[in-house]
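Same chain as my last thread, 182 residues:
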Amino acid sequence: MKFIETSIPEVKIIEPQVFGDERGFFMETFRTTLFNENCGERVFVQENHSKSSHGILRGLHYQTENTQGKLVRVTSGEVFDVAVDLRKTSPTFGQWVGAILSAENKHQLWVPEGFAHGFYVISEEAEFAYKCTDIYNPNAEVSLKWNDATINIDWPLVGGELPLLSAKDKAGLSFTDAPKFK
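reply #2:
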C-alpha cells in the first residue's frame, strides 16, 4: 500500500497494490500495522456500507461526541470525496481536501477525527464502504452546509446541476455557526 500526502497532512489517500489477471484481481485494503505507521494508531469499531444514486451529495457530516475518524472507499461507481478541517488550533483550519474515489482506482481516503466528511456521486450510482473509529451517535451529528462560501468547495457537479440532498443536509449549518473542535 502507498500512503499519499494531501494538502492537509493528516488526510491521506491510500493506494493499494492490485494484483490482477484475466480471472480478476486481489488487493489488500487494510493492515493495522501499516495504517498505524502512516496515519497514527487507531482502533476501528464500526463499518458501514451505503449505496447512492447519481447526483446525490451526502454531507458534510461529523459528530461532536463519539468523534469519528473514517477510512472510506468506493466498491462500485465513483464519488468525489471531501474532508474539511474543523480543528481550531490546526494550521489548515477551514481548509478542505477532495479526491476522486472509484471502484476503478481503488483508492481510499483517511479522514481523521476533527474533520467534516462528505461525498458527491459522479457515476450512475455508487456503493461506499467505510470503517469508523467510534460508533454512530445521531444525537451528536452535525451537518455542515455543503456549499458554504467560507469553505468554498469546488464540487464537480455533473452538468452544473444542484445535488440531491437529504432534509438534514439541506438544513446544514454555515461554517461560521457550526461547532468546531479544539
